[in-house]
Amino acid sequence: MSNPSEYNLISHLNHILRSLKINYKNWFVLFISCVIMCHKTSIIWGCIAYILCIFYAYFAHRISHEPAGFFLNRAHIYHHEHSDWSSHAIQVCVELAASYSPIVYFYYYLNMENSLFLCDPYIFMFFSIFYTSTHNVNYGMFSVNKVHAKHHEDYTVNYGPDICDIIFRTKYPENAVENTDHYIPNAIVATIITVGFRYMYEGLDGNKQQLLKHFLFKLYVLIYFIVIYFTMKQTIIDVNKMRERDMNEFESRITELIHKLQSNNM
Question: In this structure, what is the dihedral angle of CA atoms 255, 257, 263, 265, given to the nearest 10 degrees?
């Protein structure tokens, strides 16, 4: 990361503009997605909501690496330590359950799906699918490039999305720009799934909507508790490993001390 004394505002702004220019196709697809998603409301508000969700994803990931985000952190660190199916499965649970949990609870308990509250709930659904699939499929399964792999080596850089790393100066290499065209299929699929779900949900009568809403909320809570259970389980494993390591070191020092005493008595 750059030294603050070396920071150059013009260079920084040029870096941001270069990223927007290189990835114009990805931004165009996201804009079309926003138009489709928000055709019943305000496209301007929809664009603001999309931008807020992009920043939300960045800061949720960044906070998960801080001590304050412990219940996100341990499960996410497991994802950093392993690349098997269980690693990706628990990471999907983290991203679905933890990242947007405050919003989900607000909508469920306050019944705000028909109110203007931060943004349309379907936009959060879109970004859950979009971000989770990009992270776990593009970067995880297909390893489309080395950008996210660098984050697994150094937790302080390349959180993603790339534009946020550039804006908040957590990009590595510092002056690089990731070509995010590989986001496009994820955005298209996420839009199709979300719009399809919206039409299906809005086509149900009130009672069926409530039943589906309660079912999805219970499923969401179940996923949330899976993350908590996994975090506690891994924490216990970590503590036991530390205790075993400390005991081995203690026994090794005692043995070494006994050998020295025996040598001195001979």
Answer: -120
- Show the tokens assigned to 29: 């697809």
Our measurement of the distance from residue 154's CA atom to the centroid of its chain's CA atoms, rounded to an integer in Å, reads 16
Task: Note whether 235 and 74 are within 8 A (CB).
Answer: yes
Q: Report pTM.
A: 0.82
Nearest C-alpha neighbor of 227 from the set 110, 78, 125? 78
Q: How far apart are CA 227 and CA 91, in angstroms?
A: 9
pLDDT in tens, 5-61: 478 999 999 999 999 999 999 999 999 999 998 877 788 888 998 999 999 889 988
Q: What share of the chain is helix, strand, coil (3-state, %, to 5)?
A: 75, 0, 25
Whether the Cβ atoms of residue 190 and residue 129 lie closer than 8 Å to each other? yes
